[in-house]
Structure formats: C-alpha cells, structure tokens
Design a protein that fits this description.
The protein is 83% helix and 0% strand. The protein is mainly α and 70 residues long. It is flat and about 35 Å long. It starts with a helix and ends with a helix.
Length: 70
C-alpha cells in the first residue's frame, strides 16, 4: 500500500505544482521507479502501473482490458 501511495503522490504532486508541464510528472515517476530499483534491489511494477494510472488513465484502462482479454 505504501508503494501505491508513493507513486500516486509523486504524480499528483507534479500535476498540482506544474499543471502545464506534464514532463515533470513523468520525471517524478521515473525517479520513483529507479530509486525503488537501486535502493530495494528489486524492479517492482506497482509503482509504474499506479503512476501511469494517475498520469494517463485511458492508456492504463486500455492496457488492463487488453491484458484481461489476453
């Protein structure tokens, strides 16, 4: 649950602080995933998937439907 809240918080913070610059949202998500990989020595997809859900929900929904139907 903590990983999900961290990924959502990082993307939402960038979205609220810099609403006209979506690049900061992606940079925050990238740093979160890279930090998780190097500090915890594990590549977890929870951070990326929840961050993408907040960043671009249509793509996340389409991906979820595709994976479910596959």
């Amino acid at each position: 649950m903590a990983e999900i809240s961290r990924s959502i918080a990082s993307v939402l913070a960038a979205k609220l602080l810099f609403p006209e610059i979506p690049t900061w949202q992606l940079i925050g998500l990238i740093f979160l995933v890279v930090g998780r990989y190097f500090i915890a020595q594990g590549g977890d997809v929870t951070n990326a998937s929840c961050g993408v859900l907040i960043y671009y929900p249509i793509v996340a929904l389409a991906l979820g439907i595709t994976v479910f139907l596959y």
